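G., the chain you wanted modeled:
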Amino acid sequence: MKKRKIFFGYIIRLAVSLTDPPAQWYLYNRLSTVDERFCRGGLSINSITNHQSLAREVADFLRRELLVSSKYSQGTFIREEELARELNISRAPVREALKELEGQGLVRSIPRKGSIVLGFTPGDVEELYDIRFALETQVFEALVKDRLLSEEDYGRMNGLYEELLDVASSSMEKSEKVIAFSRIDLDFHLYIAERSGRPWTIRILKGVYFQLHQAMVQHLEKEEELAYSAMEHLKIIQSLKEGNLDALRESRHYSYFHRRLRDREKLEASGM
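Predicted structure as tokens:
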């Protein structure tokens, strides 16, 4: 068993090293899962070739890439055949993954061209925030009323808050800084939502979060805004710990970003 595990680990490292960078994240995670199952003696052909599971993994990969990669900026096309070739998989799971992203409003399929990465207007963002506000209200109420958060949870949230501060004050290039900040911000809010134990709410919120964070990457212009947004996360942590639902309703971390987009829309409407 030990020799078999060492051999399989070598195969994983070799495969990843020979793969183009866009596919390395996907391939490593995929093969690592295969390695673990193989060494437990529980791997079957069906578990490897299950294209529904593979489609979900490709969808997760693409959602992250939309946030962190300039390759998939607004208006660019994701072509099924090209992506399947990059990931070294068949087109079927890629097709299903793109359908999932289209259902979440992140891309739109255009016949014979591919799936175009969508942008977000201030009106789109405002509507998404309305949905987010309603869902997060339910999450916060469950967390506070049922006392679902532990000291370990608060420790994790504080850790993510510190990471946000570090990124906001770092010397990274602006685009890299916004992308890194957005990824941690996404982890922060998903972590809170997942503690609520409301699976359907979490499922819908995930789609909303990915859309809003895509908008954040597209629209955030001033690096100073990141420091302000980071501080708003501390208010969320403190309000949850105090059980202050009113404060959570009145002050969300996104409120500054939201107001700024609305102010921009007013300026554009006035021709300034």
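Residues 131 and 208 are 8 Å apart (CA to CA).

Shout if anything looks off.
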